[in-house]
Amino acid sequence: MSEQQKVYPVTPELAESAWINKEQYAAMYKESIESPDTFWGEQGKRIDWIKPYTKVKNTSFDSHNVDIRWYEDGTLNASYNCLDRHLEKRGDQVAIIWEGDNPNEDKKITYRELYHEVCRFANGLKKLGVKKGEVVTLYMPMVPEAAIAMLACARIGAVHSVIFGGFSPDAIASRVVESSSRVVITSDEGYRGGKNVPLKENVDDGLNNPNVKTVEHVVVLKRTGGDVDWNADRDVWWHELIADCADECPIEEMNAEDPLFILFTSGSTGAPKGLKHTTGGYMVYASMTHQYIFDYKPGEVYWCTADVGWITGHTYIVYGPLANGGTTLMFEGVPSYPDYGRFGQVCDKHQVNIFYTAPTAVRALMAQGDDVMDSSSRSSIRLLASVGEPINPEAWEWYYRVMGNSKCPIIDTWWQTETGGILIAPLAGVTDLKPGCASIPFFGVQPALVDSEGRILEGETEGNLVILDAWPGQGRSIWGDHERFVQTYFTTYKGMYFTGDGCRRDADGLYWITGRVDDVINVSGHRMGTAEVESAMVAHPSVAEAAVVGYPHDIKGQGIYVYVTLNDDVEATDDLKKELIKWVRKEIGPIASPDLIQFSAGLPKTRSGKIMRRILRKIAANETDGLGDTSTLADPSVVDELIENRLAR
Ligand code: WTA
């Protein structure tokens, strides 16, 4: 691989114009590791504090006492940092450019307008009795009101919990239960790719679940005007709620370690967990990474295509860009509607300078051929970025050549819901680019590779990616279950944060993420626990047992392959397969739809009854020659049957 590795050196212009060059990076990185208190003490000033901090870093990764605090005696408000402090200088500058699903619909909102909208909605929430510290659930389409609701919560000290609009009623129910939300904010429907998404109906179904006992109010934004059921005791229209609300609202003074939001994410075991992010360190880190990693300059138009339902939307559509007084573009639609040229057309229309998307979107466009971008020039773009999964070199080259007209650096950003912000990425003025390489750690980030015993590996090598010390944007806990937080991230390798990813370090010391090493799969950049899909499957009355693995998929990166053993009296039919797919969509959501379902009489198990997923992964990947040792299987003949009946694709 490394022989034919193409390298795209930092251009002299970028070395000159970017926020940071090689020498600066080296000096700043060194200081960030050797003197974190000095470094982050200085960087913390990029945020406005009500009461300035006197302490900076106070963190422990010791598995007996995981405790992460930054700026712990400072107070601030995140909404103030995204809005109020910009009013004097850039009140009339556009904060959010919104582009509708329908290409004829768009909107520009200035900082002043956004400020007033947020204040009004914050007053609306107060009318509903929302108090500091309580969790408010959002289930919203990609409209400015999603950001407005987040910032309104932050303004009054409520903790938002955004649920991605692609999740099912059952998923809404379990998350609402977990967070004991009293208030849910949604919309009548959303638009996506020319279709209506029944958001309010999903919320109604979810809240009908008998386990949901806390919800008192559902605020409904009118987006499409479609028909919705109405529960007059519980539901209130957004526009009616704020009709008589003042457009000024005082901020709540928050401690740096007060929670800003929770966000549910999948792990290798159990139900999705609500990662808890706090206010001070998160804001410092979101703002700093947004500025330096995207090389964001004042006045530029920046577009991150993620949904606000994911961490990428939180940090790099809302908090990072707005803390920096930037112009952030929010897109309601999908890359393929009305046609696959849409991303380019939107870039031209709004003169986008910085564009941030996921490899799965790049591959979907690439599959259409180079002329898919002919309807746009994309000449305004100067920097491209990627997130969500490893970007394969073919997709990287296409992104570079077609989307970026062979003139834009590609910033491949590695991070996680847990990390709050980007941890590993090239910097435009610093790093020579290698397609597919996440490259170098950001300031304060100490990556290391360990073997299965947790021994640190040096030099050019491959291993499990861990981070040795805390950074300000890091998630602090799992909502209501700190022990699970400790167990999940800090016990596999003592004293280190375990990412769940595998990684290679090359001869130049650059990091290449190789993908998950646990039972998490990454489907179109959406993270999913195989255990979650399995438990949905076995909840179906016809299913005796199920095992889920990822397999290589040209567009999605990974597809979902399910092995199912049916109950004795059940017939294996194609109709049943369809029903099972529908079932999983209902239990989790469309993003968890199985791609392939193989019925099988049995699953390969060890004598102690453990399913050997290694074998199932190989069969799903069509790599049946190298199955490795099968001698520990209770019944090796199961494997032959599985291979014989494996599915074509
Ligand atoms: C994967 C998304 C390779 C990785 C921000 C990680 C990546 C998981 C990259 C987190 C990248 C994300 N290169 N892999 N640039 N970015 N990943 O929590 O496996 O939705 O652990 O956060 O996505 O997914 P999450």
Automatic annotation (TrEMBL):
Q: Where are the transmembrane segments?
A: none
Per UniProt, CoA binds at: 192-195, 312, 524, 585
Task: Give the catalytic activity.
Answer: acetate + ATP + CoA = acetyl-CoA + AMP + diphosphate
Residues bearing N6-acetyllysine are: 610
Q: Which UniProt keywords apply?
A: Acetylation, ATP-binding, Ligase, Magnesium, Metal-binding, Nucleotide-binding
Q: In the UniProt record, does the keyword Metal-binding occur?
A: yes
Q: Which InterPro entries match?
A: Ac_CoA_lig, ACAS_N, AMP-bd_C, AMP-bd_C_sf, AMP-binding_CS, AMP-dep_synth/lig_dom, ANL_N_sf
Q: Where is the AMP-binding enzyme C-terminal domain?
A: 532-610
Q: What is its EC number?
A: 6.2.1.1
PTMs per UniProt: Acetylated. Deacetylation by the SIR2-homolog deacetylase activates the enzyme.
Q: Which residues of the sequence carry a binding annotation for ATP?
A: 388-390, 412-417, 501, 516, 527
Q: What class of enzyme is it?
A: ligase
Q: Which family does it belong to?
A: Belongs to the ATP-dependent AMP-binding enzyme family.
Q: What is this protein called?
A: Acetyl-coenzyme A synthetase
Report the gene name. acsA_1
